[in-house]
Specification:
This protein is of the alpha+beta class. The protein has six helices and four strands. The chain has a four-stranded antiparallel sheet, covered by helices on one side. The protein starts with about 45 loop residues before the first helix and ends in a 50-residue tail after the last strand.
Length: about 270
């Protein structure tokens, strides 16, 4: 009834049932990558991801209309379900999300800002649209971009972070309907950094002053957004300690054999 990550249930004769979509926790122990302490589970899939497909089922099929009905939808790029993912009817099988199905790569971009604060959700959307347009023009493809995370790496005033310039790194996820574009995308971002800055400064949605846009570089890249059709059921010998940035849209067919713990986390978060 409260917290962060949770479960949503869909029922009905038209639903492709008997599946778990998104990423289920592998364990409820404190060291699990989905455990943020204090009983909070980090969600792998947005509320908007499910409602995107439900909205299409209700007849809201145009991107502009879906953005109006689901204003936070643009914060999740291609990590949305279509009506074809959720419902049996063959008429939904062709439903696609523009800018998805090809390359997917993560980029870190450093900004020097007029003050030290994070971009708001609406500012993130505006940034994503600027980057998508720039990379789309350079690669002649349809591109989606959203902010995965933000982190402060330098502040001018440690005693008062509201004053002075600050430096933050944005981790951006790029997806496209084309392949082999990551090199061209990074080249465009770095050679046109001043143009990007000018568009950010001119955007009425972005209130945070940008002093400098530094070089961007690819953190991870993959040739395709399509998941493996033959997943391994063996545990990794070197498991990640971080939550996935790209949760699978395929159903989970096998749950963890490890029973959930009955004790609370021994390492609660010290953050408020």
């Amino acid at each position: 009834d409260h917290g962060w990550g949770g479960n949503y249930f869909m029922m009905g004769g038209a639903v492709k049932g008997g599946r778990i979509l998104g990423q289920y926790p592998t364990s409820f122990k404190g060291k699990d990558s989905t455990n943020d302490g204090r009983g909070r589970v980090i969600p792998s899939t947005s509320w908007d991801a499910m409602w995107n497909g439900v909205g299409q089922w209700f007849g809201v099929t145009e991107d502009e209309d879906l953005d109006y009905v689901l204003p936070n939808r643009r914060n999740f790029g291609c990590e949305l379900f279509t009506a074809g993912d959720l419902f049996k009817d063959e008429q939904y099988a062709t439903f696609k999300i523009p800018g998805c199905g090809g390359d997917s790569f993560i980029v870190d971009q450093t900004f020097v800002l007029g003050q030290t604060r994070f971009y708001r959700g609406d500012e993130e959307v505006a940034l994503g649209e600027i980057y998508a347009k720039k990379v789309g023009e350079a690669t002649k493809s349809t591109v989606k971009v959203f902010v995965v995370k933000q982190r402060v790496i330098e502040t001018a005033s440690a005693s008062n972070r509201r004053l002075g310039e600050g430096k933050i790194v944005l981790t951006l996820k790029f997806t496209s309907n084309a392949t082999d574009i990551s090199g061209s995308a990074i080249n465009a971002l770095n050679t046109e950094a001043e143009e990007i800055k000018a568009e950010i400064d001119a955007s009425p949605s972005i209130k945070l002053a940008t002093v400098e846009v530094a070089d961007a570089y690819v953190v991870t890249a993959s040739p395709s957004m399509m998941p493996s059709l033959s997943p391994s059921y063996e545990p990794s010998s070197n498991p990640s300690t971080q939550p996935s940035l790209s949760p699978s849209l395929e159903p989970v067919s096998v749950l963890s054999s490890e029973p959930p713990t009955t004790q609370p986390s021994l390492s609660p978060s010290l953050e408020p």
